[in-house]
UniProtKB/TrEMBL annotation:
Pfam families: Methyltransf_16. It comes from Biomphalaria glabrata (Bloodfluke planorb). Transmembrane segments: none annotated. This is Methyltransferase-like protein 22 isoform X2. GO terms for molecular function: protein methyltransferase activity.
Length: 385
């Protein structure tokens, strides 16, 4: 998302471009009363990934060339507003996805609860997706790399205020980075600030001991939880002993403990707050797009990072896009807040801020452009002596 503030209006619809690279979609809107899509996000790991504990991937450039070799320039066109034109293709289900839909057909968006048995029309729609051909993009070194998949329920386009229902390139960049630092995540306690669809939390759960998914609404947390339930038994590795889903609204006074007036299964209780505050690692993907929200995010981040023991926060964002070539409306504000953190000279901690090079292996399918950025904020305890 990259435009000036004047370019965004309440009724504007925005669309992520990752769907042009992940071309296997199930559209539920035409079959049932549901505006969700299901997309299979493929990622490739070396066949000895778990055995050797080494990331012996293709380089980012090699992966990009292999993954996108069959996508022609005409298939990556943008419309007059700079939004990607969606390309629909059938694709080949990879081996570890066999019978996925038949075993997970009961998880679908529904206002009345977390689960709903799919009606015959929806099952027919799923069956259509499974009638596949061989047009799925395969990397050239198929003998050395194994295809894995995460299947995500999401919306295809939303207003700017509901972008958490989409999957953005910055989320896939975060997923790649988590795969590259899997040894750091081992047995860690991770909190996802603004989890959205939950895809980054799912990748973190492959390695971390505990993961807490947080967002501002019950509906988003329901979406993230549905996606976790769909995928948890199909991951190539799952070290997470407990996945939590909790409300955390950055725009209200922190901490936003449940006061008893509005009960929610996702409401924060003291034990939940303790779990969030004692995390080792925080992750946040593509939450920098609005100045007021960015300010609220940094207030929350400052509070969490100021609590002992020392912690680290990873943030991904898209500075601008190839098509629009202008800064995100909140990017300048983001930089100012980073500078404010480095200027802190009182209190129990100091902060260091570093931009992380994005030259780590690319496993997911998306356009890793120069405009995608990854930042690391570390808290450093001050010696009281």
């Amino acid at each position: 998302m990259a435009a000036s503030n004047e370019d965004y209006h309440n009724d504007d619809q925005v669309l992520s471009d990752v769907h042009t690279f992940n071309v296997s979609h199930l559209d539920c809107s035409r079959e049932i009363k549901c505006d969700s899509y299901f997309t299979r996000f493929y990622f490739y790991l070396h066949k000895n990934y778990t055995a050797s504990n080494q990331l012996n991937h293709l380089s980012s450039q090699q992966m990009a060339e292999s993954l996108y070799s069959s996508i022609t320039e005409s298939e990556q066109r943008l419309d007059e507003d700079g939004d990607p034109i969606l390309i629909r293709k059938k694709d080949k289900i990879c081996s570890n996805e066999s019978n996925w839909f038949s075993q997970n057909a009961n998880y679908i968006s529904d206002d009345s609860g977390l689960e709903q048995q799919l009606n015959p029309a929806t099952q027919k729609c799923i069956d259509k997706l499974e009638e596949v051909d061989d047009t799925h993009l395969l990397i050239s070194s198929a003998d050395d790399y194994k295809c894995h998949v995460i299947t995500i329920e999401h919306k295809m386009e939303t207003s700017i205020y509901n972008v958490g229902y989409q999957v953005w390139s910055g989320a896939l960049l975060m997923c790649d980075y988590l795969l590259s630092i899997h040894d750091v995540l081992d047995k860690a306690h991770v909190v996802d600030l603004g989890c959205g669809t939950g895809i980054t939390s799912i990748v973190a759960a492959m390695f971390a001991k505990h993961v807490v998914c947080t967002d501002y609404s019950n509906a988003l947390l329901q979406l993230a939880e549905r996606n976790w339930q769909r995928n948890k038994d199909f991951l190539f590795q799952n070290n997470c002993s407990e996945m939590y889903f909790k409300l955390l609204d950055w725009t209200v006074d922190y901490p936003s403990l449940e006061d008893g007036t509005e009960k929610s299964v996702y409401g924060l209780k003291p034990a939940d707050l303790d779990l969030i505050e004692k995390a080792d690692i925080y992750i946040s993907a593509e939450v920098i797009y609005d100045e007021e929200l960015t300010l609220a995010f940094f207030k929350t981040a400052y509070h969490l990072l100021s609590i002992s023991p020392p912690k680290v926060l990873y943030i991904t964002l898209e500075k601008s896009t190839e098509s629009q070539q202008m800064c995100s409306p909140a990017y300048e504000s983001f930089q100012e807040h980073l500078q404010d953190l480095t200027s802190v000279d009182a209190g129990p901690v100091r902060f260091s801020v570093d931009q992380v090079l994005t030259d780590f292996p690319q496993c997911f399918q998306y356009a890793r452009t120069k405009y995608l950025e990854l930042w690391k904020i570390s808290s450093i305890a001050v010696d009281s002596g």
